[in-house]
Amino acid sequence: MFHRSCLLRYHRTLVVALFTACIAGCQLAPPSPIGDSPFNLAKPVSHSRQGEQYDAFTQPDRQQKSWQQDGQVQQASHQQIDVDITGIPPASEIPDGVPSLRLASSRKEPPKELAKMALPKYRLEPPDVLLIDVLRLVPKAPYVIQPFDVLEIVAPGSDSDFPLADFFQVEPGGRINLGASYGVVDVGGKTIDEASSDIRRHLVSKLSRPGVSVSLAQVAGQQQIAGEHLVGPDGHVNLGTYGSIYINGMTLEEAREAIEDHLSEFLQDPKISLDVFAYNSKVFYVIAEGAGYGDGVVRLPITGNETVLDALSHVGGFQQNSNKKRIWIARPAPSGVGCEQILPVDWVAISKGGSTATNYQLLPGDRVYIAEDRFIKLNSTINKLIAPFERMLGFTLLSGQTIQILQRFPEGVFSRF
Length: 417
What we know:
This protein is α+β, with helices and mostly antiparallel strands. It is 25% helix and 22% strand.
């Protein structure tokens, strides 16, 4: 009888909790009519024929005014903002012979499947990885001979039985061993001309014609810069003993010229080839609402050819709490514009109908936003509201049953029937 009295005692609390949950669930609906909302993505996009272009920017003035009154985010419009929403680079940055945009219609529209655009020149940023290959690295004259350098020495007047024409490595002490017949010469810390004069004077007593030719065959102590180089957080690339060079925001051509100009302080007319080994700085995001349990964000690198369909394939499709009828692309706009760029996506038309109208090409920084299912959101909200009361009632009922058992069996022994 105790648990019945508890239920009668707290039934008012249960009624109030359920009433509050219903009110909270009703507040999840949008403040404006569904037909006038700019985020009415649940309404399928109508297509009169396959391949018809859906214009996400030209809306009636009446709807735009109603959106402004409701305080909603406006759809991007070329009349509202002085921004190229398609992301087309300036004509000065488009290489010759590369079309900036290939569209079936004459209007300027966002790039999409079968009508993609060529992205502007790649700008290097952290944490890109560069690949440097050395074409020519010659030390500046006059070069001072260092230990482990390799010299090529040729003496035309040497003995035919013991010719002096070979490559010789400088020993750690700076000396060079010409063999048992010709002895040792100290060349460390000297230039090539000074080493040639010393070797010639050394061979006077051993050769009748002590003519000698000395050249630098290999530099042992030179810093090797060929290989992979990471662009650091400060925008610099480390070149070892040659220091570092700032290349953040540069194109490949600009970065190559900057590196060669920096190396010219240490080398004679250096030549290198530069390429991007890993494109890490340009990305797009796939964001899925979590229906009250936390949003999910996936960061993916962009190669310049991804579409909405590619983005969803990378994340394994939709989650259980996602609404496939409410998807859009949030394209970043310059600061101070005061308007967001929203591109609605018709997933049903893309997947089932093969339509390319809203299968937009993704640009660096795009956010593919997948909205939550509102019924699942309502369910999670109700669960959050009534969960504390359920725990309180459960604890109360369990306590009542425990007290009844203790009162019925005070000695802890069950009676026989």
